[in-house]
Design a protein that fits this description.
four-stranded antiparallel beta sheet; globular; 3 domains; Rossmann fold; 20% strand
Length: 493
């Protein structure tokens, strides 16, 4: 297979391998002689396309032709322009179906006293402010002696915020930290503050609300003569508490998966993202949950998600989600269509619509049950949309603090990063999986080589159940996951 036509109504095909000018390829019985070299993952025209005419991929427009395009010609940024505009009005036209009920599976997780379930049993040391980053790292180093076979790890985290922030910007940081503190993958949490910061521990507690005093401890560094010694003693007590938890059989309905992509290429919307969508539908079919974010990467595909909203209430919230994020762009003088990165474009993605129509496939086919604000905890089973940007680190962290126990992250370019929860890297092509064996956890590129889609979904589901049960770890867990990324929208004093 040298190329793929994704949908019958498409006016383009995607090269599976590099194709040469003058080469003749067959697409659904139609012979096309190429007028340009076509890199792998890039598109070529299946018919003559007039200037101003929409270019169709995934059965939807990905932009329009900036000039006449001949059949067999390379279609990319040089001859394509986005159709995206600013704030729009939308009409609710429901178009969704229930996902197929699935045979319930189980995994071995950690049942918490508040009813939540974790897939890791870790101790987290969280700073309220960047000023104490070095302190929490030293507490982590000196506390490793308290780790037991039943504790998956003792980790400190770093971030540069928590002070000199104002209003909603400061509140987003406090909401983020509260969501992290409440995450079920952490059996015990030590929160370390400096004492004079805007987002000090007392302010954090107002956002955090009720908490389990056995599980969450606080330390103000300025109030302690030896904050490292005192912090290490607190971690010792938390380790004793964490050691009381054992893995127990839990239904897959307790799983919450976060859906994310980064460094996408022309194959992401053909292999890795549809695979995540299929996996998401399987989890939801067992009564579980999935969270889809990256709002800018919904632009151009937003009506698909809007019409999958279960009720008009969720539809209106999704409209606000999209339009308010466009206003956020425009407030800073940015265009709403300036999203595909240089790596995206090199991999074959031309416009934001091209990217979005591939990206949103991670959400499968399930109805949209809820729309969450940044750092808001998931409340309903099924598929939820979450307000967060496309930035890999910020979006993955946002998924975690909203309750995802693990992140499924597709990539066509590769990335080693990890967030506080297990971050599964799914490659869109086999070349990346072979080249970056220390980064990639699962290869969806096999779909281009003839692997059966349903069989690969089942294999991926088995992998996720084993991961949730602690039988395996992601590559990102074996690297460094100490850095937090918090969404910032405001003035720094």
């Amino acid at each position: 297979m040298k190329c793929i036509k994704i949908h019958n109504s498409d006016s383009v095909a995607v090269a599976v391998e590099p194709l040469k000018v003058g080469e003749t390829v067959t697409v659904n019985g139609q012979q096309i002689t190429l007028l340009s070299d076509i890199p792998a993952g890039h598109k070529f025209a299946l018919k003559d396309i007039l200037e101003g005419e929409n270019i169709i991929k995934y059965a939807y427009p990905i932009g329009h032709a900036k000039a006449d395009i001949k059949r067999g010609e390379h279609i990319h940024t040089h001859n394509t322009k986005s159709n995206l505009a600013g704030v729009l009005d939308y009409e609710y036209t429901p178009n969704f179906k229930e996902v197929k009920k699935q045979k319930p599976l189980t995994f071995k997780g950690y049942k918490r006293p508040n009813g939540k379930v974790g897939i890791r049993n870790e101790i987290w040391i969280i700073p309220t402010v960047g000023c104490v980053n070095s302190i929490v790292r030293e507490i982590e180093n000196k506390s490793q002696k308290y780790k037991t076979d039943n504790i998956d790890g003792i980790y400190s985290y770093n971030h540069p915020y928590g002070c000199s922030q104002l209003g909603d910007d400061m509140n987003m940081t406090l909401k983020y930290l509260s969501g992290l503190i409440n995450h079920p993958n952490a059996a015990g949490v030590l929160v370390v503050g400096l004492g004079c910061e805007n987002g000090n521990i007392e302010e954090l507690k107002k956002v955090l609300g009720n908490y389990d005093e056995n599980r969450v401890k606080f330390l103000v560094a300025q109030d302690s003569e030896d904050e490292i010694l005192d912090g290490t003693k607190i971690v010792e007590s938390l380790a004793k508490y964490a050691d009381t938890f054992k893995r127990e059989t839990c239904p897959a309905s307790e799983l919450v998966i976060g859906l994310k992509c980064g460094g996408s290429d022309g194959f992401s919307g053909i292999t890795a993202n549809p695979l995540l969508g299929s996996l998401s539908d399987r989890i939801i079919g067992m009564g579980g949950s999935a969270i889809l974010t990256e709002v800018p990467e919904m632009f151009g595909a937003e009506t698909i998600l809007m019409n999958r909203c279960r009720t008009e209430t969720e539809f209106n919230k999704t409209v606000d989600l999209i339009n308010n994020f466009k206003k956020y762009f425009k407030r800073y003088g940015e265009k709403v269509d300036e999203n595909p990165s240089p790596g995206n474009k090199a991999g074959g993605i031309t416009t934001l619509e091209d990217k979005s129509l591939g990206c949103t496939q991670k959400g499968g086919t399930a109805p949209v049950e809820d729309v969450l604000d940044y750092a808001e905890e998931i409340k309903r089973k099924g598929l939820s949309l979450l307000r967060a940007p496309g930035n890999d680190l910020v979006a993955a962290n946002a998924l975690a603090v909203s309750g995802a126990q693990l992140i499924l992250f597709t990539t066509g370019r590769g990335t080693p990063f990890g967030c506080p929860v297990p971050t599964v890297k799914v490659s869109s092509n086999s070349a990346l999986a072979a080249k970056k064996k220390g980064w990639i956890d699962f290869n969806a590129g096999r779909l281009l080589e003839g692997s059966d889609f349903d069989a690969l979904t089942e294999e991926f589901l088995d992998y996720i159940i084993a991961l949730a049960s602690g039988e395996i770890k992601t590559h990102s867990e074996l690297l460094d996951k100490h850095e937090l990324a918090i969404f910032k929208d405001g003035v720094t004093l």
